[in-house]
Amino acid sequence: MLLDLTISELSAGLKAKKFSSEEIVKECYGNIERSNPTVNAFITLLDKEDVLKIARQKDKDRTPDSSILYGLPYVIKDSYNTKGICTTAASNVLKDYISPYSATVYQKLVDAGAILLGKTNMDAWGHGASSENTDFGPVKNPWDNSRVAGGSSGGNAAALATRMAVFGIGEDTGGSIRNPSAWCNTTGLKVTYGRVSRYGCIAYVSSFDTMGPMAKTVEDCAIILQVIAGHDPKDATSSQEAVPDYLKGLDQNLNGTVLGMPKECFGEGIDPQIKQLIQEAADEYKKLGVQIKEISMPMLEFGVPVYYVIGTSETSSNLARYDGVRFGNGRNNFTKETMRRIMLGTYALSAGYYDAYYKKAQQGRTLFIHEYNKALSECDAILMPVEPMVATKFGELINDPIQNMLADIYTCQTPVGVPSLAVPCGFTKEKLPVGLQLVGKMFSENLLLKIGHAYQQVSTWHKQKPKI
Amino acid sequence: MVDKKSISKQSVILTKEEVRHVADLAKLELAEEDLIKFQKQLTDIVDFVGKLKEVDTENVEPTSQVTGLENVFRTDEVKSSLTQEETLSNAKRKYKDYFVVDAIFGE
Predict the structure, then answer these.
(1) B101 contacts in A (CB within 8 Å)?
(2) C or N terminus of chain A, fewer CB within 10 Å?
(3) pTM: predicted TM-score of the whole model, two decimal places
């Protein structure tokens, strides 16, 4: 299948005219027709004939200088504004909202010549870790249809696993790229805060939100990041830090690299099969010349409260604009989960509670930054699980607000801003995917990509796909 | 599943009035049965995040953002933005070039 190929293989094949964008897009729609009725990855699927027409034009207009992403079909989470196309954030509040403008990340992909197939299903507004908190039906895990795909970028991960697209653009605020990547056996990168412009992506937590690539391989993520990273004058929080060449040095050996494993992640509460698989990945890394070191991060147990107090406070403010006046439908269209988060945030910010909750959490955030700085001074990157459990059965998370929050336990370092790469590292006995996470210093994406890529040269987990 | 033993014994109870007040602040209209359900759930959640009080934050500065940037401005020049038509395109109620809102003063 063409869609099993990596971005560089596809790009080379297209330039050598071994196959065409039209053929790739036809394969995408074939897989969509086969799997989407079950998986429900899409909220808006663009018309097949319209997209094929675009693909044929791309085949005509391709030059040797075309971007590596030119003519490759992709999907984008429905939190990104795409001019002229419906953008819902998976909520009935915006079910008939047609974007009058485009997100910077989307515009960059348009300019690179990539081909959009559709807007993917997600937890509404980013509120969730399972893609169940959606007004468009949940996303089903392609590996086990009785289980969730993860979230909030679940539609993307499920689409990639079932080969509906070459790559996806997700968004990670508290694990929303990494969680579904781990639960669907795909690769995903949560970038450093400010690395990629947030302009035009519907905001969940403005000081945590990151825009990032999701794909079958680490190398694919590096290629996509090269296209979307960089300063944007439209995003006041975007970084002026130079964008390095993410492919340079990707194949370098890892001799002398130190990976720290926080002991707090491997105690009570983690599925022993996941612990075993992460340990086996660490052993593979040792064979590559990496030194594995045990580190301690005692603040980790406070990660979820810090994340949720600040996160819900900021989201309560960001969602205040949905008043049904200038756009969208009324506020009674919010789901219960979203209303809970808005109310928690409003409470935390209200008079009499601001100091005990919001300010306290911001102070906790400072302590977290110190803790990550300390941990990352003892190692080059942190190796930890993405999730303490495998993909949950429907209802387990969405019907239990506290359990739902705890799903973010290893992915809620987003208040610190550090990047993290999620990579498939095996399957449980029940054939459910497991992911590992590589967390690094601010702007250390090229190191993380190098470390992740090395693992994918000595493992084949990421090549496996569910029975379609 | 993640172990919930770490949740402290309930030391916070949100009253129905508090929930109604918070809902009003957030402009959320809640039916009576939802108010009761949310009261229980929010009490549990507030209690859970109250775990933060175990952290020693004396003399710790709060962090509100991690970029280190301040005062990111652009030059004060008029630039094009959305057209009036684009801006009004998603409004459910329009009157000529205006958004229509519910009356807030009496007629």
Answers:
(1) 325
(2) N
(3) 0.96
